[in-house]
Amino acid sequence: MKRLTALLLLALFSMGTLSACNTIAGAGKDVQKAGEKVEETAEKASDGK
User: Fold this and answer.
1) pLDDT tens digits, the chain, 49 residues: what are they?
2) pLDDT score, position 17
3) What is the DSSP string of 2-48?
4) Left (φ > 0), alpha (ψ -120 to 50) or beta: where does 21 sit?
5) Three-state secondary-structure class, residue 49
6) Which of 13, 21, 24, 48 has the fewest CB atoms within 10 Å, counting from its CB?
7) How far apart are CA 29 and CA 35, in angstroms?
8) How far apart are the two ends of the chain, measured CA to CA in Å?
9) CA 32/CA 7 separation, integer angstroms
């Protein structure tokens, strides 16, 4: 019984960790896209467009 409980807890912890990685990776991509837009806007402003 203790072994089953330990395996269930390990499985839940692993799922939580893996889903958090996906969420953080998605947030990183969003921040990167926003940074690219800011960079493009800054380049346009410095070009006088």
Assistant:
1) 888 899 998 888 887 777 777 777 788 888 898 999 889 888 888 876 5
2) 72
3) HHHHHHHHHHHHHHHHHHHHHHHHHHHHHHHHHHHHHHHHHHHHHHT
4) alpha
5) coil
6) 48
7) 10
8) 70
9) 37
Q: Give the tokens for residue 23.
A: 């969420």
Tokens of 37: 């837009």
Say what the pTM is: 0.51
Distance (Å, rounded) from C-alpha 2 to C-alpha 8? Answer: 10
Confidence (pLDDT) at 48: 65
Tokens in use for 13? 């912890």
Tokens 């499985």 belong to 11
